[in-house]
Structures are given as C-alpha cells and as structure tokens.
From TrEMBL:
Keywords: Aminotransferase, Lyase, Pyridoxal phosphate, Transferase. NCBIfam families: C_S_lyase_PatB (TIGR04350). This is cysteine-S-conjugate beta-lyase. GO terms for molecular function: cysteine-S-conjugate beta-lyase activity; pyridoxal phosphate binding; transaminase activity. Its cofactor is pyridoxal 5'-phosphate.
Length: 393
C-alpha cells in the first residue's frame, strides 16, 4: 500500500533531548539502556503532527500572550462534526463537555457515577489508568479478563454477567481496546449493551483510539447503539491519540442526556478542571477540521508496519504469536512460548537496544506479552525488529 503521505511518516526525526517521555525517560523507567536504544513503549508517535495542526499551534505561540482561553464553541463544533462525519454519530456540540484529558475525565466520572466501595468492572489486560483510577477513588476493581482464541481477543460475556449479578455499578469499556488491538464489532457491542441494560450497569466508554482503526474495520460508537439509554452511557474522546497531541492535553466527555451532562459539567467545575489548555484546544480544532487525509495515510502506514512485523516474526520467531491488529498502533505479542519470564525477556530486549512495554503492566492476562508501538518510521521499526529477534532468540 502506498499513499501520497508516505514520505511524512518515513522521515526519521531525532527526538532525543526534546523532553519526550518516550525517548528521554527510557532510563528512568527501564534502567540503563544502550546508546541509540529504540523506544517502542509509550503510546506516542514519532511523526510530526499534520501541518495544519503545527500552523495553528505556531499562530497561538506567536501571539506571545497565553492567558485563559475564551469558552469558544468552535473546537467543540469541530469535534462534533468529526464524530458525525467520521463515526456516524451526531451527539451535537452541546453534548460535549471539555476536560483536560481522557484520564482526568475518567477519574472524574468514576467518582461522580459511583460511591465509595462500589464495584467497577474492567476487562484486563487493559490500559492501566483504567484500574488505577478506580482504586485511587476508593472503588473496587472487579475484573472480567478478556479471553483469547487463536490470536483474537474477545470479551467474556458470561463472566461479565456473573460479576454483574454479584453487584457492579459501572463498566469501563476500552474501545478500540489497548493493548489487544481489537475493534469491537457492532454485534459484540450490542450484546454488551443488552447485558448492561439488563443489569442496570452504567458504561463509561474510553474511545480515545476511535480514529485509529485499520483498513477493513469500523469503529462503532457504543453510545450510538439503540439499546443504550442516554442517561446510562458516557463517552470519552479526544484527537490526542489520533494526531499525536498527548503533550497538549484536551479531551471531551460526551453525554447526550441533559441532566447527566449538567451533573458532569458541575463536577468538572467543582474539581477545578474547567480551564482548558489553549494549545490543546486549537490543535484539536485544526486536527478535526483539516486532519482527515493525514489520518487516513497514517492508518495505511500503520497497517503496513504491522504486516512487516508479522512477516518478520513469522520468519524468525515463529513461536511469537501476534494478535490480529484491528485498531490502535500497538501490536500485542504473546511471547510465553519463549520459556523466559517477563523480567528476563525485558532485560534481554533492553540489552539488545529495543524497549517495548512489558505485558505485566496491563494487569491480569498481560504477563509474558509485549506491546510494540508501530508508530515510528519503517526503517527504524525494521531495525527495532532486528534487535527484538536478537533479544528473544
Ligand atoms: C485507552 C487509553 N485511554 C486514555 C489514554 C490517555 O488519555 P489522555 O492522555 O487524554 O489522558 C490512552 C493513552 O495511551 C489510552 O490508550
């Protein structure tokens, strides 16, 4: 697959010394790493943002005055139009409440929608703040681990029903799912919605990866399903993952029920989270208005990177099982057949000069897996794969 935008993603950019968590904090997180180690861990891309986004940020920077931004509806309007055009869901801009990030939004929603001691369901292996935020709020994490069949992960709806019967107030849905790379199908989500409705379980859907769906797959907004009652579902979205804007925090909590939205907006003010980030706001507006061609080219590039990883593993480490990548730019590798424990495996990889995320970080079911960030130029990924082959052989 080739696109007019390939050259953008092929450019090797030296990010060392730029204050990047992914590049400059490797030693702090993983201990001593060889010079020129390649980081494939945190979900951050080694690509420039679309030019329209860079220009919007530069225009604001050039003003030289960085006071509180006005409560403009333009960014919300751009985000609502994006949701409608791209995802076939039209909640209307008035349904979007601005928050400083998806994680702060989730942390606030957990506190707002449940009481201390309530059970909150999560489906590990999963992005760790989903369970960390529950614990930090004094709620109970109730796990319903995902199940894997022939390299494809799924939700265990029987298990979920069991824990719902035992008493759960809220489910945190990760869709598409980080780290297993699933784009949940409409049928899967419909069955989940039926179950939540039957047991009166509210859902907070973390859909931050909604745009990062590989060709051939379609993201279904959970809240758009007919079974979902507007006062029982809240959706968290942001352009930050799609366009690599993690350092400019900005996100939306979408609630189509007016009373629920009022409650959330009130909690945002009450927790001191109402003042948005000026740069995050303009960057996301520009991304939503002008970023679609860049994003489509990116999705192709990631698909090709995933295919390269799969091929090389197949030839050199056939015992590594890569989960079918449907969404996100994060490959999930089952390395349990290595016979090494995860600590040894990570130590060998780091020594070989490549730094993925260890699966243990993602909770139950993650041990012995690796999460590999594919959002890097192909030549660098190729070099990283060569090092992985050395480290795991
Ligand atoms: C599933 C998921 N949710 C949330 C986030 C982070 O959201 P934010 O940076 O807006 O807090 C990430 C980042 O990788 C993620 O993978």
């Amino acid at each position: 697959m080739s696109t007019a935008f390939d050259h953008t993603f092929d450019t090797l950019i030296d990010r060392t010394g730029t204050g990047s968590l992914k590049w400059d904090d490797m030693e702090r997180i993983f201990g001593p790493v060889p010079q020129n180690a390649i980081p494939l861990w945190v979900a951050d891309m080694d690509f420039h943002a679309p030019e329209a986004v860079q220009n919007a940020v530069k225009d604001v920077a050039a003003q030289g005055i960085y006071g509180y931004p006005a409560e403009s509806s333009a960014p919300r309007e751009a985000a609502a139009t994006w949701l409608a055009d791209r995802h076939g869901w039209a909640p209307g801009k008035e349904s979007l409440v601005t928050v400083p990030g998806v994680v702060p939004g989730m942390a606030l929603l957990i506190r707002e929608l449940t009481a201390p001691g309530d059970g909150v369901a999560v489906q590990p292996p999963v992005y760790p703040p989903l369970f960390d935020c529950v614990r930090a709020a004094g709620r109970r994490v109730v796990e319903n681990p995902l199940v894997e069949t022939d390299g494809r992960w799924g939700m265990d709806l029987g298990g979920l029903e069991g824990i719902f019967r035992g008493g759960v107030r809220l489910l945190l849905l990760c869709s598409p799912h980080n780290p297993v790379g699933r784009v949940w199908t409409r049928d899967e989500l419909s069955a989940l919605a039926d179950l939540c409705q039957r047991y009166g379980v509210m859902v907070v859907a973390d859909e931050i990866h909604h745009d990062l769906v590989l060709p051939g797959h379609t993201h279904t907004v959970f809240a758009s399903l007919p079974q979902c009652q507007p006062d029982r579902v809240v959706t968290c979205v942001s352009a930050s993952k799609s366009f690599n804007l993690g350092g400019l925090p900005h996100a939306y909590v979408v609630a189509t029920d007016g009373a629920l939205r009022q409650r959330i907006a009130h909690a945002v003010v009450g927790r001191g989270l109402a003042h948005g980030d000026l740069f995050g706001m303009v960057a996301q507006e520009a991304a939503h208005r002008h970023g679609a061609p860049w994003l489509d080219a990116l999705r192709m590039y990631i698909a090709d990177n995933a295919a390269m990883l799969q091929d090389r593993l197949h030839s050199h480490l056939p015992w590594v099982r890569m989960a079918t990548l449907e969404g996100t730019y994060l490959a999930w590798l089952d390395c349990r057949a290595s016979g090494m424990d995860e600590t040894t495996m990570m130590r060998r990889l780091v020594a070989a000069g490549v730094v993925p995320s260890g699966g243990r970080f993602f909770g139950t079911g993650g041990e012995g897996h690796l999460r590999v960030n594919l959002a890097t130029p192909r030549t660098r990924l190729s070099a990283a794969i060569a090092r992985m082959i050395v480290g795991l052989a």
